Amino acid sequence: MASGNNHDNLTAAYIDGSAVIRVEGRGSFKTSPPIKQFIHRAIDAHSATRILLDMSDCIGMDSTFMGVIAGIACYTKSKPGLRFKLINLSEKNQKLLITLGVDRVVDYSLSTTAEEKNLILHLGTDAQPLEPGFPNKLEAAKTSLEAHTTLVDISPENYAKFKSVVEYLQDDVDALNRP
Question: Own/partner pairs for 156-159, CB < 8 Å, 24+ apart?
């Protein structure tokens, strides 16, 4: 299940009250919506108590993806008994999180516990593909705007980096909302 030529793949499963998602390729604006949708379904419909993103095969992340991850982390921290964690994060991706301040709100590790390894093994047999992409242009703009607003909210230093992006995306959302 590749999207275009970039081979960004997502696989996910519900295993013993946990939602486990493997990110292969880049964590990007294309992979952000299905991750967000799957996680909200896992919480609302399946009463997941733990959400793990296996990042062992993730070669990079863009700002939209990191903003969505930060938003999910903030959301899950408001839910008692719910844990969200990135596992098997590379040092390169850790540096990306630190650069935008996402490391301040998201739990992560560069390795896994024995229990997390066991869940990842089950992912191979129970996984379903999550198709990257946006349902429509308005949803794409809203997701990207929300992600970048979250990045500014968690780290005011990001305002200078993303001011023009946020303004552009807000204009885009406004234009797409007009009849």
Answer: 157/101, 158/100, 158/101
pLDDT tens, residue by residue, 57-109: 999 999 999 999 999 999 999 988 999 999 999 999 999 999 999 999 999 99
What the block records as the tokens of 65 is 């993806």
Task: Decide if pLDDT at 2 tops 50.
Answer: no
Which position has the token pair 């919506």? 33
Residue 32 lies in a domain: yes
Is 149 a member of any domain?
A: no
Q: 109 lies in a domain?
A: yes
How many of the other CB atoms lie within 10 Å of CB of 4?
9
Number of domains in the chain: 1
User: 79 is in which domain, residue-wise?
Assistant: 9-133
